[in-house]
Task: structure prediction
Amino acid sequence: MPNQQDLSTRPGCISRVLRSFAILSLWSCLPTQALCAAPDTVQASGAAATETRRQIDINDLFQHWVHSREEEERGTTIQIFRPAASMDFPASWFRMEYKLARNGRCEFLVLAPNDGHYFKPCTWTVSADKLMLQISANRGSTSYKIAELNGKILRFTPLQLPLTD
Result:
């Protein structure tokens, strides 16, 4: 049997274990936010609303968003995007990105077969109730149901297949 070192004598082992423990401890303490607010409005027809989405400030949408799939829960369809400058994203072969401008124009990152990914122009619209985002390009469009939007996070569920080149 090869000579096994005690973990406490391996160079850097304790610091890596402690650093991992500290990160996991902090991560587990992060607060979770509800996606729906308590009922507080009445629908236009006069019937009471069963639930109302929290208010979304559309100005938070105008930035460069990067898919942060490491934060997503398995088994759900909700996708999480973060502002490009908000963190160092782990290395990835491809990570979807959207750049949304105030004027309704945008760009999305295209997955190229030769790994030469590039941005392609598109347009975007948001429904009147600010709960649906639609991104359109020459070959079609993709719709998303917005679950949460603020300056730090965009959570949505794709309702159609994402855009491709």
Observations:
- The two ends are 55 Å apart (CA to CA).
- Residues 6 and 13 are 10 Å apart (CA to CA).
